[in-house]
Fold each of these.
Amino acid sequence: MFISIEGIEGCGKSTLVNGLSEHLQNKKIGHVITKEPGSTSIGKILRKILLDKKQQISPLTELLLMFSDRLDHLEKVIKPSLKEGKIVITDRYIDSTYAYQGAGRGISKDIINNLVTQTEILLPDKTILLDLDPEIGLKRASSRNELDRFESENLEFHKRLRKSFLKAAEINPKRFLVINADDEPKKILQSVINKLSTYDERLKESY
Ligand code: TMP
């Protein structure tokens, strides 16, 4: 199973990913936790460039750098792990591109759709969207570290991201699980595990 976790800045993706990883470890279910951008040696270099506030990057350059990271990630991490029968959980994937480069930077959906088609990237089986008000998310993000190139964008930018994620969820109801991220981390984890276990019995909590 290929799972992506999506959401705006400060929505709690890392906490959820850590909780899921612990759950899968306890259940002895083979899995790989990964993220975009930055999960391969090439990806790490691309991530440094992409998040660096000192870099001036045009929207199209940014889009293609994200896709370069994704293709390397797919080839070196995602596809081999799925082939080994592991559950792959990625912290961000294609829906972040539609949100950030599409809704955020203003690149047309057609261009992104074309890239998706031409590069034949895999789509996740399930996408967990941690939905949160950007004002809350940005406060959380700014309290924990210096803001990066994306986090430093204005509130309007982040509002567009949220809208884009919610729209994607509306268009793809079978793939998306939308979770209210303004809740206790433990409750969020529980709710995600419960929902995912209807697709993969092995994930079920044992009481
Ligand atoms: P994060 O690991 O803290 O989520 O940082 C990654 C940043 O990269 C985040 O601000 C979102 C951004 N991003 C895009 O703009 N487009 C993409 O396709 C992906 C995967 C991430």
Note: The domain at 2-199 is CATH 3.40.50.300 (Rossmann fold).
Amino acid sequence: MKDTAVIIMAAGKGKRMKSNLPKVLHNLAGKPILNYVLETIDQLNANRKIIVVGYKSEKIKELIGDEIEYAEQVEQLGTAHAVLQTKKLLSDFKGEVLILSGDVPFLTINTLKGLLKYHKDNKFSCTLISTILENPHGYGRIIRDKEGEIEGIIEEVELPEDKKGINEINTGIYCFNKESLFQTLEKIVPDNKQGEYYLTDTVEILLKDGLNIGNIMVKDYSEVLGINTRVDLANASQKVYQRVRKHLMLQGVTIIDPNSTFIDEGIEIGEDTVIYPFTIIEKDSKIGKGCHIGPYSHLIDARIGKGVKVWASTIEDSSIEEGANIGPYAHLRPGTIIKKGAKIGNFVEVKKTVVGEASKASHLTYLGDAVIGKRVNIGAGTITCNYDGKKKNRTIIEDEVFVGSNNSLVAPVKLGKASYTGAGSTITEDVPPGNLAIARSKQKNIKGWSKRKKKSKK
Ligand code: UD1
Ligand code: CA
């Protein structure tokens, strides 16, 4: 849409969040609040998109990048002042301006398109979205005359006693004709309790100037809820998680206890996968069909194939292929690849390591910076000593190797194909294919020792 500009107000600190982080960057079920708004307006094909930034603007710019324009509001003097900061950027622009808040994440594209169309069709100078709230506390209220025509908007703090009962609220989402918008903004004065330039004052001024105001009332108020406090944030998160779980269940995923399961939006999970209670699945994770995930599992950027079992384990930025078995109490750290049918068992930590097809590390092991072939058995208590205090070194374990229990594999080191190591070995040199390496001191048995000990005690 060539004649449409979108302004997102996001300069405020978000005082009510009581936080160091700008409000719009707070995490809402896996991504910053602001990203929800940006993803919605991406579907609008507006030719100008501007974010008004102020408080910690560098943090916002760093996250969003330069796909969007920025207007700096150095001092946060109010919403009208925020919009005014885009004046220069929009000096050559002609058309309609949509104004959104960075803290209203669930606005849908349909509502936005509806707003724009209604506004244009009727040639309004401003069209605003309102809704009815059971508890309107905190919002600006829509004031109507006897005929039901909009007269103005009064902010919560300015609201006289007799108007506190009004439950039609201003959602903070508007469409303005650009010329009327900027002409009006210049006329706004901060003569209110907060000493702020209120964008909501535009309504009264436009009406005084004899211009028309339009209004759309959305039925589903949850679409236009603003996030002001951490309580709002938690409620909004629950809403997203609920929506995601419902979607996945309808796609054929069993979620045993929806209330204790948290899955970020956009994560794909295959049919007949069962998610057990107390499981969190985050970021760019993807899970195949017929898996069993949880209970008590935490997956972050985990890519999981078909028929995989993950039980009470943590997986970060790792791939697990078909039929592999993980846990309980395993920790797969970034850069790990577990191939088809492999097994990573109790209390095993794996980092930046490839574990080949059908290989097993079933108990109490650390595998770091290693490449492990097929059908390898890693005995209980094996440790790759990958760090020499300066750099990380590789361990290579070829196909069909049998590593005895309680081995220290001092990297860099290579265990050749089908070689064996004795239990308790400290392997410091390469083992040629097919060899048995025993690297421990030889056992000495001392005859009659216990009898002698007893005697000497007497
Ligand atoms: C605003 C509206 C209120 C409406 C509510 C809906 C005004 C005066 N009030 O109130 O009628 O019911 O939204 O959610 O507009 N911001 C800036 N610069 C500033 C001040 C704010 O960029 O100087 C940004 C904030 O970062 C935020 C948005 O504008 O993203 C809204 O500001 P906020 O302080 O949350 O306004 P509300 O009090 O919620
Ligand atoms: Ca707000």
Note: The domain at 4-223 is CATH 3.90.550.10 (Spore Coat Polysaccharide Biosynthesis Protein SpsA; Chain A).
